[in-house]
Amino acid sequence: MQQTRLDTARIRAARTVIDPVFLDTPLYRCEALEPVLGCTVSIKLETANPVRSFKGRGTELVASGLAAAGERAAVCASAGNLGQALAWSARGRGLDVTVVASRFATAAKLDRIRALGARLELVDGDHELARERAAAIARRDGIRLVEDSLDVETCEGAATIGLELAARAGSFDTVLIALGGGAMATGIGHVLKELAPGVEVVCVQPLGAPALTRSFHQRRVVTTESADTIADGVAGRYPIPAVLDDLLLVADDAVLVQERSIITALRLLLDHAGLVAEPSAALGLAAVLEAPERFAGRHVVTIICGSNVDMPAYRRWVTPAPTS
Ligand SMILES: Cc1ncc(COP(=O)(O)O)c(C=O)c1O
Hints:
Elements: H1 8-14, E1 27-29, H2 34-37, E2 40-45, H3 56-68, E3 73-77, H4 81-91, E4 96-102, H5 107-115, E5 119-123, H6 127-141, E6 144-146, H7 152-166, E7 174-178, H8 183-195, E8 200-206, H9 211-218, H10 241-250, E9 253-257, H11 259-273, H12 283-290, H13 292-295, E10 299-304, H14 311-318
Parallel strand pairs: 2-10, 3-4, 3-6, 4-5, 7-8, 7-10, 8-9
Antiparallel strand pairs: 1-2
Helix pairs in contact: 1-7, 3-4, 3-7, 4-5, 7-8, 8-10, 11-12
Pyridoxal-5'-phosphate binds next to helix 4 and helix 8.
Keywords: Lyase, Pyridoxal phosphate
Cofactor: pyridoxal 5'-phosphate
InterPro entries: Ser/Thr_Dehydratase (IPR050147), TrpB-like_PALP (IPR001926), TrpB-like_PALP_sf (IPR036052)
């Protein structure tokens, strides 16, 4: 097999650096979801940690590397979860973190970034503008720019989820992975292709933010003019070429889902699994809802990768419209 940028020995070593609070997350069969979805469903729960998303696995690696190199500061662009996780990982290591985010980002995420002591700068545009601004700050201040999915630590941190899944390989057929910048999909995909090649790796994006999925199918970078989805964690428009190259090596498929399926999946997770998920974390189940025949009789694992929501919006999503 052609090589990705990732290395399984480094991913194993990463486990010794990442705070155990992010590791060995629950993986369990959720039978209550199965009658609705028509397949066997297991959940990998990445929300029961201090930042309520999987991103802490990667930021622990980034921050420990920075501290070891004697760096004092870093800047990143974030839709919210990377920024929150980097702020958490930096706090105990004496690192100053600046997070650049869209002013339209989920307010609960921005509040947590501030509460964790990071400096927050808002841009009047989307995540791609935040990426440009973060790069400009890094150049101006001569500090490390942490680029999610491009920086291999962010992928290898997420890839530790893959090790935990590979340890249970044989019990499931397919892993459904939310696809944003691609750190999670390339990380988990790398490990599964190496340690459990029989497992199908399926990435899921919203139809409203399809850039990396389109790029995967066309085998070249495809950008979009805009992104319009409630799944804020995956709403990028400019795929990173090196990440696409890795994704092409480790993903079996990438599919797009509609907003209404994401909302139905959020409701299912609350009603049948007792889980608050953010929209990005519901993408896997949305994919099953849209193609039940594809997954019928299979055992799928879906990664519940974040639960940072603004409660008023979340309540609207999970409350069915009154019928008259
Ligand atoms: C909750 C959640 N799900 C999915 C993703 C997408 O992950 P990636 O950018 O690693 O593809 C993110 C990214 O921040 C996220 O916060």
